[in-house]
Amino acid sequence: MNEVDKLLSHSFDEIKGSSLVIELLRLALKYFGSGYTTCEKEYKQYYEQLKTLKTDNMEPVKKNLLEKKYILRGSSLLYYNNTHFNNDTLTDQIAESAIKKFPALIGIFLNEKERKVLELKSNAGQAIAEAESEVLKTDAEPEVETDSSPATKPEEKEEPKPKAKK
User: Fold this and answer.
1) How far is CA 153 from CA 58, 106, 145, in A?
2) pTM of the model
3) More confident residue, 61 or 24
4) Cα dihedral 136, 137, 138, 144 sign
């Protein structure tokens, strides 16, 4: 039984009032890139998302954040219009609207230098993954021995036949 199955073996009511909330938040961080909240509605949302994730391939979510103009720093969440947003749920349009209304929010987003570091890390990670894939692919190919000598068959020894009695 994997970690998601273990958690989902409990009802949401069992989870929300116990230390299982910590496990719920850990899994939300692992699979959705979010998980820092004290809001019970968010707990329920994470629980429901984990139930739908169970039908998928159970791989942690990996979105290309670099395609976005606005990326939240670290584990920051944006609370805007009565909704929590993380990097997976935040759109550039929502970020721009929030910044227009509250200019100080610009501080929770990556600046240009931080964005450049993220790009470099991402590119390095992709290069490492490609190299690992190439090495593993090479290791997986069986070596073919080329022996030009004719195949030799071990000599079979005949067992002596028992002599017939007269």
Assistant:
1) 51, 79, 18
2) 0.43
3) 24
4) positive
